[in-house]
Amino acid sequence: MNSVNHIKISVRNLVSFVFKTGDIINIIRGKNRAVEGTKAHKRVRLMRDEDYQSEVPLKHVVNYNDILIEISGRIDGLYKSDDKVVIEEIKSTYIDIDNENFKYNSLHLAQAKIYAYFYCLENNINSISIQLTYFQIDKEKYKSFFFDIEFKELEDFFNSIMDYFIKHYENYWNWIKIRDASLNKLKFPFDSFRRGQRKLAVGVYRSILNHHKLFVCAPTGIGKTMGTIFPALKAIGEGICSKIFYLTAKNTTSTVVENSLEILRSNGLKLKSIVITAKDKICPMEETNCNPEYCELARGYFDKIDKAILDIFNEDDFNRNIIEKYAYKHKICPFEFSLDLSEWADIVICDYNYAFNPRVQLKRFFYDNYDKYVFLVDEAHNLVDRAREMFSAEINKSKFLELKRKTKDVSNEIFEITKTINSSLIKLRKECKTTENKYLVKDNKPVEIYKLLKTFIGIVEKNLHQVKNEVFFNDLLEQYFETINFIRIYELYSEKYVTYLANSKKDFKVKLMCLDPSENLNKITKRARSCIFFSASLIPIKYFFELLGGDNEDKILLLESPFPKDNFSLLINDTISTKYSKRELYYHEVAKFIKSLITKKTGNYIVFFPSYEYMDKVYEIFADNDSSFDIVKQMKDMQESDRIEFLSLFTPNNERTLLGFAVMGGIFGEGIDLVGDRLNGVIIVGVGLPQLSPEREILRFYYNKFKGNGFHYAYIYPGFNRVIQAAGRLIRTESDRGIILLIDERFTTRVYKKLMPIEWNNHCIVKNTKELEDKVFKFWYK
Ligand code: SF4
């Protein structure tokens, strides 16, 4: 939807909206059909005469109470036969078209009827023919159904569709007027902007207005959430954009956004917001098996959804509780409901995945042009690695072998193709075994495997109904979706990818590994009206600008911390090495420095270590020697409740000092707010380098080749980001005070000094515990 006065909708979407019916089914709905569809169209066209016109655009505008509803689309084919105009609609299928039970889909006919109506109207003709053609992909043959229709029938049909459409959208259009009136009156909800916040808000607004991206490094305390949402909302009120996607790396961030919206609502804002909760979290079933035979919330979903949306539309805040309440009232799946409801919300708060990940992207928004949407990407430093994952895909040999075994004697076609794929993977594994590292990196696509996987998809689609009661059905389905994803990523493959073959005792995998996500991200964000990447640690900004897909016209905004500089003291010890080869030599020394810092003032402290192993070694020293303070340690695989319990121990005015042991880059390394005396000091051991692994090394080689500084791109920058995030746990508000101690000889080298944020310029070097204690004493008591 664009503005309330001018609505644009495609014929396909109009038909899907009005005629949706039936169950949610987790079986194939033509996931691979976009490409196959194009192929089918080409084949059919080749069989037609010279005067056959293809891809004929049509548009029709309906005026409803001064709202212009523009409906557009393209006719697949148009020709004349016996003086009659014939409109052809072409669809691809894997279903056997020669089967006597093969029928046309009424949705396809509806689509063709709308085109036929537009054509008759435009050309002033009274009757027309429709040809509905199904092209069977695997057999390369086709079958057509013919219909002769009078204009009057088409007109009645179209009017009934529009009546239904308008009835359901009328509420929404009325809502938009209310929303925009409130947005136009909306004032910034606080007496004044914080330092740097106005600059941020202006930068965001200008970026939306001027249609470019903005990369913002905004230290804690600026008020990033309000500083980005407020100008984006104003832009909606002015008709510059129509919808905001607030994208988060972790779902804990969504609470902050919801709180900001609550403040704005209490200041008169009328806005529909939605939080999308991940499927596995919101699904109430024991097993997330979206099969109507198993899940009653999947049954008849599409028959019930419109009524449920009309019902929930009285609410403004579509949070998880509200979504669940209405979903259960209407007996529909809460997850699918939230996705459908997102179309009716003005701001969608969701994980990065829903905008960027080709696998779960909300295609309903991002298929066509979406230049009216704004992306606010929070904690954007996380997006580089997340995007690499999203744009990579792998297949595992063990899965095909398993399917081969299970389908033998049940489905010959599936058995044969899984057998061929398995053999082909064995061949690749042999190449791998000859290498010293048990892995192989190739800079070209695995063409042979790709072809086989495409065949696998076709065969699965064709056979799925026959095997739906077999024990291997769910495994087959899972592998089908994995393969679809692999194919999708294969089609994105460029020089920014490598093919990574890795052999282990248990398995062999082929991975299409995205090394540089910039191009893929750029393609997505470029089509939005604007995209704002912001974080306290977009450092070095040029690295993020480049990897997140910045263009020449895009802007950078560096903001200074709004907090007084003397609220914290940054101390660096550079006499200790935390390099892997020397670690053992320094465990006791590290423990001494930690103790020296925390014994000068009773309070709460967290030490961040480079790994669990390192943390355990230092922990043993403390556990053996000291009971004058309490220690709490991060464990592997901590659940959300454990995390909350850990943090709850950090209370102000503890009688005894509390020392938290945590791992850098882990669940306590970012996104935690221990305000005031809940945290008095942070100690960071090491420079945060990611662990050495083949995949990191591949990154290093790649950036060495293209940038000449692979170690920086693969290790130093991501590592230092963890350091900044961990240090950032200390000062959360203007009145927070405390000490940060960095321990590692590398912190005083040129490369690290260059990376340090401006507010770290006043750091002091402490060569021994005596110097440290003096500085600590001075900070707290003088
Ligand atoms: S409720 Fe769960 S199992 Fe049922 S359709 Fe929704 S996600 Fe699938």
Keywords:
alpha/beta; Lambda Exonuclease, Chain A; 20% strand; 44% helix; 27 helices; Rossmann fold; 782 residues; 7-stranded parallel β-sheet; binds iron/sulfur cluster; Fumarase C, Chain B, domain 1; single chain; 4 domains
Describe the model.
The chain is α/β, with parallel strands linked by helices and 782 residues long. It folds into 4 domains: 6-167, Lambda Exonuclease, Chain A; 204-389 and 518-558, Rossmann fold (3-Layer(aba) Sandwich); 393-514, Fumarase C, Chain B, domain 1 (Orthogonal Bundle); 565-781, P-loop containing nucleotide triphosphate hydrolases (Rossmann fold, 3-Layer(aba) Sandwich). Helices cover 44% and strands 20% of the residues. The protein contains 27 helices and 25 strands. The strands form 4 sheets. An 8-stranded parallel sheet has the order 10-9-11-8-12-17-7-18, sandwiched between helices. Helix 5 packs parallel to helix 6, helix 9 packs across helix 10 (320-330) and helix 17 crosses helix 18 (473-490). The longest helix has 35 residues, at 151-185. The mean pLDDT is 92. Iron/sulfur cluster (SF4) is lined by residues 24, 279, 283-285, 288-290, 295, 297-298, 333, 335-336.
